[in-house]
Structures are given as C-alpha cells and as structure tokens.
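Re-running 3-hydroxyisobutyryl-CoA hydrolase to confirm reproducibility after the cluster update. Everything else is unchanged from the original entry.
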Amino acid sequence: MTEVDIRVERGVGRITLNRPKAINALTHGMVRLIDAALVDWAADDAVRLVVVDGAGERGLCAGGDIRSIYEDARAGGTASLAFWADEYRMNARIARFPKPYLAFMDGVVMGGGVGVSSHGTVRVVTERTRLAMPEVGIGLVPDVGGTYLLSRAPGELGTFAALTGTALSAADAIHCGLADLVVPSDRLPALLADLLDGAEPEAAVATHARPPGESRLAAQADWIDACFAADRVEEILARLTDHGEDAVAKEIEARSPTALKVTLAALRRARDLPDLESVLEQEYRVSAACLRGHDLAEGIRAQIIDKDRNPRWSPATLSEVDDDVVAAHFAEPEIPFRLTGGHS
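Result of re-run:
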C-alpha cells in the first residue's frame, strides 16, 4: 500500500493521502511525491485541476509524522530540517499552482493537513471538519504557512487559535479565511463525480454547498480581540482573567512557555511580511530552532510517546523565557532551499 495515491482520472489530478490508521499523517516521502506531481501537472495540458483528499473516515490529515521528528530531535539529527524544507516548498507550490486546486477538508485537518489544503484554490469543509494548528502543545510553533494564514484572520481570532490550539468548526474555518464552502460529507462523492465529468470547480462546489451556520469564534470576537491584541503572552493571560475567561487562560498556561512566546512573535512578524514565501522562510528558521531546543521532544513524548499528558517544559514559566531567547528563534539558520525553485 502506497502512503499517497497519486493518479490522473479524466483530466483530474488526484492526490489521496493514504495512511488512514495515522489519520494520514505526512511523511517526508509523501511530501516529495506530492511536490513532484504538482510540478508535472502544472505543465501537463491533460490535467485541468487537482483534488486532494484523505483515505478513511477520520480526516484529511492529522499533521506531520511527529514520531519521526521526536526521534530526530532526540538524536540531534537533521532529517526534520530536510522534511520541513521540502514540505514548505510544497506549501508554496500549492499556493501558486496555476490550475484549480481543490481540497476536501473532511474530518481532522491539523498542522501539515492545513498546509496541503488551506493554500488551495477551493477549500471545502464539512460538518465533520475539525481544523487546528495545535503545535504549541508539543513545543512547536504553527508552520506550513499557518502563521501567514492565522495572522491574516479577522481581528485576533488567529492569535486565539494559535495560542490555544483550539479546533475550529467548518463555520469557524471559513470565517477565519482557512476554508471557503461547506459541503455535507455525504455529498463529497457526488461533487467528485461532477468534477470528473468536467464541471467547472467553483460552480460544482456551489451546487453542493450548504450554509455554514454561525461561527462560534465570530460570536466571541469582542472579548477575543480585546484579550489577544496584547503583544506579550503574560498580558494576554492577565486580560483573560480580567474578562472572566479563566478556563482559556489555564488552557494556554498548559502549553510550552517558549512556544507560546515564539508563536506570538511569529504571528506579529508574519503580519508585516509581504507574502507566503517570506513567512515560510521565517517558519523554517523557527522550526529549526525548536528542533534544537528542549520542549519539542518533551512535548511529543508527553502527548504521543508516553501519553502521560504531563510535559516538563524548560523553561517552565513564561517569566523565564526572555526576549533574547525568543529573538534567537528568528535569527538562523540560513535558508537551505529556494521556495521558487523546481522539485529537487
């Protein structure tokens, strides 16, 4: 069984992530195969559009293969750096793909799953969609262009999503600019059939689409904007307490202090960067710094390996993470890849 099923059917380039037992978590090999296919299809007149989906019933993609990242971090290796370089190049290629690129974002869409979907042309969510960038819970910072997308969400909703790691519904994802339309999950086969029959993508999706309903985040925008507009995590927590949102404050306090501060800085910096490529280059530097740090391996250990849900962060408190530590995450290394280059 291949980890990703890549084929062309009646002019449609099909990409099906095919690790259903792992909720289709991305491996380095999968990323390279997808990127190579996109290079080929961009120049192939026989391919008129691309559709990406996930095998199984649980979701499109739960993110990257973090067990591999854990082993690499513990060993002091560089395999994760090569994976991220190829993944971020793929994310940029999706965003500027010259033909319609449709993503079926059914079920779980987390981390790297956002990267293969939310940069596309037409982003379809369902009543089962649970979209999240939960990286701060494992000592990492939202990547795959996540800080680009979240920094451009309305008000401070993206900051809220990044610092809490909360899962967004279909309506939330659309309101935040991470998706476009809701199609009921049981209508996806009919939508795909229409696309294979030659229907124009946006019109086909609109035919099957349903109203997204109310966004829970949009309804809470007043207090979220008031609290998360602060430029220091400590101040955000203080404002949450003042607003009576103690549960949200406690949720944030359980995350990696270093990852929280770096994430907030990354979001603020991303707002001022001109394009997705420049943000992806920033994310590469940040991810590389996280790989060398303590909290990434520890966070994965606690959540995925030992599953004790009791990470021992170091530094353990926000006050111990000074500005120099945060700034160092953005300072190096040099980018060892060109986002505008071809597949290598």
